[in-house]
Amino acid sequence: MVLFLRPIFGAPLAEAVKRTALYDGIQLPAVFRECIDYIESYGMKCEGIYRVSGMKSKVDELKASYDREECPCLEEYDPHTVASLLKQYLRELPENLLGRDLAQRFEDACSRSAEADKVRMTTPG
């Protein structure tokens, strides 16, 4: 009998934490935590670490490993590939990372700031 696990990419954050957390008290999925740790160690001096894309085939390779709940050796990959993997993980989360309440608050704050800028620009100084 073959057992198929649901992929980690696209799974709700709480489920991913439950299935892959590193059990060090920090409630993050392994893919998120390992990518952040790697980028802090090896990628902070890379120009455009989150802007420059990594090699798609390598990102797909890493994604497949995490979806199988394996622990790939990120040190075998370049920082841009690991950063691209992290961005892809965040894009594929089924719910907004901030939650509906916080997302709405950010949207409200941004619109208030834009309205205030318009008032300042039209008010004679």
UniProtKB/TrEMBL annotation:
<dbReference type="InterPro" id="IPR000198">
    <property type="entry name" value="RhoGAP_dom"/>
</dbReference>
<protein>
    <recommendedName>
        <fullName>Rho-GAP domain-containing protein</fullName>
    </recommendedName>
</protein>
<dbReference type="GO" id="GO:0006897">
    <property type="term" value="P:endocytosis"/>
</dbReference>
<dbReference type="GO" id="GO:0005096">
    <property type="term" value="F:GTPase activator activity"/>
</dbReference>
<feature type="domain" description="Rho-GAP">
    <location>
        <begin position="11"/>
        <end position="125"/>
    </location>
</feature>
<dbReference type="InterPro" id="IPR039767">
    <property type="entry name" value="RALBP1"/>
</dbReference>
<dbReference type="GO" id="GO:0007264">
    <property type="term" value="P:small GTPase-mediated signal transduction"/>
</dbReference>
<dbReference type="GO" id="GO:0016020">
    <property type="term" value="C:membrane"/>
</dbReference>
<dbReference type="InterPro" id="IPR008936">
    <property type="entry name" value="Rho_GTPase_activation_prot"/>
</dbReference>
<dbReference type="Pfam" id="PF00620">
    <property type="entry name" value="RhoGAP"/>
</dbReference>
<dbReference type="GO" id="GO:0031267">
    <property type="term" value="F:small GTPase binding"/>
</dbReference>
